[in-house]
Design brief:
Elements lengths: L6 H6 L1 H7 L3 E3 L4 E3 L9 E7 L6 H13 L3 E6 L3 E3 L6 H9 L24 E6 L3 H6 L4 E5 L2 E6 L2 E4 L5 H5 L3 H7 L3 H14 L9 H24 L1 H14 L10 H8 L3 E5 L3 H4 L4 E2 L2 E6 L5 H16 L5 E4 L8 H11 L5 E4 L17 E2 L2 H10 L6 H12 L2 H4 L3 H15 L2 H16 L9 H13 L16 H17 L5 H11 L8 H27 L26 H14 L4 E3 L9 H7 L6 H15 L4 E2 L3 E2 L2 H14 L7 H14 L16 H30 L3 E3 L22 H12 L5 H10 L5 H16 L1 H6 L1 E5 L1 E2 L6 E8 L2 E8 L2 H4 L10 H4 L3 E4 L1 H6 L2 E4 L5 E3 L7 E4 H4 L6 E5 L3
Parallel strand pairs: 1-4, 4-13, 6-10, 13-14, 14-15, 16-19
Antiparallel strand pairs: 2-3, 5-12, 7-8, 8-9, 11-12, 17-18, 20-22, 21-24, 22-23, 23-28, 24-27, 25-26, 25-28
């Protein structure tokens, strides 16, 4: 939701979503954000709705429309950080104005005693596009006066001037002016400035002083506003002072007064690059415009969630989605407080990335995650692991880089995280190191560690961390999982840095595991603070180092380079997927099942296409070899040939995955080319996509891409069917009713044509009988994407009709036999009162090597059968395919029985068998 998709727009599509089979509208944050925000995750004021999105009345009309259609609503909660850009955040502006004495100083995670003494009780504000002195003398920092307050403007940023420095603004000419303009107005001005000078100091942490300053500073501003409004001499004095402080171009000394005024504030404006080393507020990752909150503070928790709780109490929400839960100091405590404040046990899911083999903490009072791990597991089902070596060899030979050729992904991830630690977040690490140094200096057992040694050791451990974070706290024992992850990180770090002494590694390991001896409550609190801060920073380093760095460099198979996916896991056997699904049903049956989100790097159907490459390594090798040859003439010499081979390999995969399904006219072709240029701006050359002249590359590329796209269709329909019927709550990202060929945001935030989708859905609802003919017709016209909407709608309506089966049914893995047994994936959801069976194809290129047609019928499936266990046969005697309407009778008898795959896939490439009506 944003200014281009508002509450009014959301209201208009409720009927369409309900008809599609959607049960809940799950929206991005719509609380007041930075003006013009395209996504809402930069909340600037959580106490009101985003005016870009709509009014209170428009919001409640949307909610009422949802309720009339029997739909719920999942609210997105953003507790970790706030947007501070464009001077849109009133809490942040109060901190800038009043420093540590601000009522909101404790809301933000600020280090008021930072490493650099000059920043004591100041905030570093890295917003300048050049060096401070140059910016100042170019008059880009301009003082202004309006409504009783002085401010400094820098483009779209407005910074407050502290009221106690107002006398400094009026400067040395004030005494003579007061003498010349003796009278009531002069007396009032002098009284105002005296009150301003006597405000409690900005360095005060005393609660009474903070309250007094908050009240009295506003009185100062109000009195000054009234005086300037009625007294021309006073306004003339102010205007003259402002002009004087704004200096004269070409006269550097004329800016001295403004420089002194700025230095007297509780912030220091600086070049944006300074942030990497000296920033003293925690950010969301390395984004300077997103300041982190101290959600562990009850006052912060209450204020940030005040409107959210009101919406829940008024019935607007059926669930909450918590953004970036790993950024919080104590996620478990936060989630417990959240549940306690809600009117009843509520549906809560958290955005949390799980590493391979990592378990979500079972004690968290939530329904599960937003589903990145689900997307990873399902995606890997369609990757042919038998060809891992072949794809590896093709990639290494193509990039012909000996250094990279012998580099594992683990090595690359480690180096990428070290680069992030050094280049963009070194200030955060230095602050953590100084915190640890202060702790160690107070104890004779630890004081011999040097500051440099501690910082270096922290960096090595974080770069070697196997998961995004741990959850150690001072109250509970360290879990077995966290103990294993911490020890593994230290072991790997020690192995990588044999030249460093192991003493510092041992010290930090024992500290993180709470095994160091502490003798006072203050020591316990300091240890807990270090552990919490350490845990808050490992996640951003992992995300920036792996997702945003290594996954754009390690390009073996791009469908595996996804949020929450381990690129080294090349395919999963059906048995492994069955085991994972069964465990999910036992532990997290209501977690979200996602295949696309606003954070995914590639659309779900782009990945479905790219998975095909794992099945056809020979054809892929021949194709990229030819493409490289014909495109060699389009490379440029920019300190080496660009794009380099690794970038070129990424481009070819991106084109193979994202090329539009339907034929493009000139305008569509231009739009797609621009999307690709935006995606790989520094690598892609227009020439390789230019249709205006003979293009050997496109002549070679398009036939291969058409084959990949054709096979990808069936991967897409299969993963869609699994998502809707497997354990969990299926989650659909906007616009994915058609083929989702989006790339990373903002490409995946483009406006969705809901009018077109509404018309399509109405057509599908009236497509006639028998259903098999409709399904086959859509399959024949699969390029237009309607077949995907058909599968989505039919499966969702089946899920709704047999809700108990899909929400409460056991997960039953079904085995296959016959010549194509490796190419089918089947499972049942079973209760004592009925069952539903999902059967989909996989490894499609093996089934239809020439991509001549869909994977249906006896010639494709031969003797392949799906075995049915006795319990399943006894629960349901007759099924009906939700897509074709065909009736399927269960075999009878005591011997193991099966379904004939050729019969199941007679007319359509995926099957969902539900209990047939009597």
């Amino acid at each position: 939701m944003n200014g281009q998709f508002t509450f009014v727009d959301a209201t208009a599509i409720v009927g369409y979503l309900a008809a599609l089979g959607v049960g809940d509208a799950y929206a991005s944050s719509y609380l007041a954000a930075v003006p013009g925000s395209p996504h809402g995750y930069d909340v600037a004021d959580p106490t009101r709705f985003n005016p870009d999105i709509g009014t209170d009345e428009e919001y409640w009309r949307w909610i009422a429309r949802l309720h009339r259609h029997g739909m719920g609503h999942v609210i997105d909660v953003v507790p970790n950080h706030m947007g501070i850009a464009k001077s849109s955040n009133p809490w942040w502006l109060d901190v800038l104005e009043n420093g540590p004495s601000s009522r909101y100083a404790s809301f933000f995670d600020i280090e008021w005693r930072p490493i650099k003494d000059e920043l004591a009780d100041k905030l570093l504000i890295p917003v300048l596009g050049g060096q401070y002195g140059e910016v100042l003398e170019r008059q880009e920092l301009k003082l202004a006066f309006e409504t009783g307050r002085f401010t400094v403007h820098y483009y779209d940023e407005t910074l407050p001037i502290a009221p106690d420095t107002y006398p400094q603004v009026l400067g040395e000419h004030l005494p003579s002016w007061l003498a010349e303009h003796a009278g009531p107005d002069a007396d009032e001005l002098q009284s105002i400035l005296t009150a301003a000078s006597n405000l409690p100091p900005r360095s005060s942490r005393d609660a009474e002083a903070i309250s007094t300053r908050a009240r009295e500073k506003e009185i100062v501003k109000r009195r000054l506003s009234e005086l300037a409004g009625r007294s021309r001499p006073v306004r003339a004095l102010i205007d003259c002072a402002v002009r004087r402080l704004n200096g004269t171009l070409g006269a550097p000394r004329s800016f001295d007064a403004l420089d002194r005024l700025l230095n007297a504030q509780s912030y220091r404006v600086a070049h944006w690059r300074v942030a990497s080393e000296e920033i003293n507020y925690r950010r969301f990752f390395d984004i300077n415009q997103l300041a982190a909150l101290r959600m562990e503070d009850p006052a912060v928790f209450d204020e940030v969630h005040r409107l959210i709780f009101t919406l829940v109490e008024r019935g607007a929400a059926t669930g909450l989605r918590v953004d970036h839960v790993d950024g919080l100091f104590a996620p478990g405590d936060y989630l417990r407080r959240l549940q306690e404040r809600l009117p009843h046990p509520s549906y809560i899911v958290v955005e949390k990335i799980l590493a391979t083999g990592e378990q979500l903490p079972y004690e968290w009072p939530i329904a599960g995650t937003t589903g990145y791990e689900f997307a990873s597991v399902v995606n890997n089902l369609f990757v042919d692991r038998r060809n891992e070596r072949a794809l590896e060899d093709i990639y290494r030979r193509f990039i012909h880089d000996r250094r990279r050729a012998h580099q594992t992904f683990a090595d690359l991830a480690y180096k990428s995280k070290k680069q992030i630690l050094h280049e963009t977040m070194s200030g955060d690490i230095n602050s953590l190191g100084h915190q640890l140094n202060r702790f160690s200096e107070r104890h004779r057992h630890f004081r011999d560690f040097t500051l440099y040694n501690l910082i270096s050791t922290i960096k090595e451990i974080i770069a070697s961390f196997p998961v995004y974070r741990t959850y150690v706290n001072e109250r509970d024992p360290v879990s077995d999982h966290d103990r294993r992850y911490i020890r593994e990180a230290v072991r790997c770090a020690t192995h990588r840095t044999r030249e460093m002494t192991s003493l510092a590694f041992d010290f930090i390991e024992r500290l993180l595991l709470k095994e160091t001896r502490v003798s006072t409550p203050d020591d316990c609190a300091e240890r807990a603070r270090f552990i919490g801060k350490f845990q808050q920073i490992t996640g951003p380093i992992a995300a920036k180092g792996i997702e945003d760095s290594a996954c754009y460099v390690y390009n073996r198979l791009l469908s595996l380079n996804e949020v929450g996916t381990d690129p080294t896991v090349f395919g999963l056997d059906p048995a492994d997927v069955h085991q994972w699904m069964a465990e999910r049903q036992r532990q997290w049956p209501a977690a979200l099942s996602a295949t696309a989100t606003h954070d995914t790097k590639r659309g779900e159907d782009v990945r479905a296409r790219l998975n095909v490459l794992s099945e056809i390594p020979g054809a892929w090798k021949a194709a990229v070899t030819k493409w490289r040859a014909v495109n060699r003439r389009h490379k440029s010499d920019v300190n080496g040939w660009a794009p380099d081979p690794n970038e070129e390999y990424l481009i070819y995969q991106t084109l193979a995955g994202a090329w539009p399904s339907e034929p493009m006219d000139a305008d569509a072709d231009d739009r797609f080319r621009q999307r690709l240029i935006d995606y790989v701006r520094k690598a892609l050359r227009d020439a390789i996509l230019d249709r205006r002249r003979l293009n050997p590359f496109l002549q070679a590329f398009l036939p291969f891409q058409a084959r990949v796209a054709e096979l990808g269709v069936y991967n897409s329909l299969a993963q869609l069917t699994i998502k809707i019927t497997a354990p969990g709550v299926p989650d659909f990202y906007q616009g994915t009713e058609y083929w989702d060929l989006n790339l990373v945001d903002p490409d995946n935030r483009r406006r969705v044509d809901y009018d077109n989708r509404q018309t399509t859905l109405e057509g599908l609802q009236n497509c006639g009988s028998p259903a098999a003919d409709c399904a086959r017709e859509l399959l024949d016209l699969r390029q237009d994407g309607r077949v995907k909407m058909f599968v989505m709608a039919r499966a969702l309506h089946a899920r709704r009709a047999w809700r108990a089966i899909f929400e409460q049914g056991d997960y039953v893995a079904l085995e296959s036999s016959g010549s194509r047994r490796d190419c089918v994936f089947a499972f049942a959801r079973a209760t004592p009162h009925g069952a539903a069976i999902t059967i989909v194809p996989r490894l499609i290129a093996t089934l239809v090597p020439d991509a001549a047609g869909p994977p249906i019928g006896r010639p494709v499936w031969g003797d392949t059968k799906i075995d049915l266990p006795p319990a399943l046969r006894s629960s349901t005697r007759r099924w009906q395919d939700a897509f074709t309407g065909a009736l399927v009778d269960a075999p009878v008898g005591s011997d193991p029985s099966s379904l004939d795959a050729a019969a199941v896939f007679e007319r359509f490439p995926v099957a969902l068998l539900v209990p047939a009506s009597a």
